[in-house]
Model the fold of this input.
Amino acid sequence: MRLHHVQVACPPGGEDVARRFYAGALGMTEVEKPEELRARGGAWFRAVDGSGGVTAEIHVGVEDPFAPARKAHPALVLEGADALDAVRRRLEEAGYVVDLSQRDTFPGHDRVHTFDGHGNRVELLVARD
Done:
């Protein structure tokens, strides 16, 4: 068994805000939704490794009424400390708050938390050497 994707929600019309976070700040690539699902709205994002293999996929679905996930969250593993610091800087430069208060609280990992433009919690982590 393996995880295919994680879905988070956005309010109706919130796709561009999601794009600014997941594609712009996190650096994921938006992928086209299947034709039969496009009318529902939302957007899908994917990260790939150096050989083109999918390493993470996040689907942003429209939910009405909308409530952000403040506790439940996707946790994205990055390639190393340099990658984590680069993403953290991109997030901060784009105006997102990055919470470093739990950086050392997950055994064997360094991690940070942030929130997408709709308030959904996202964790970014790397294994410690």
Residues 20 and 117 are 8 Å apart (CA to CA). The longest helix spans residues 81-93. The two ends are 27 Å apart (CA to CA).
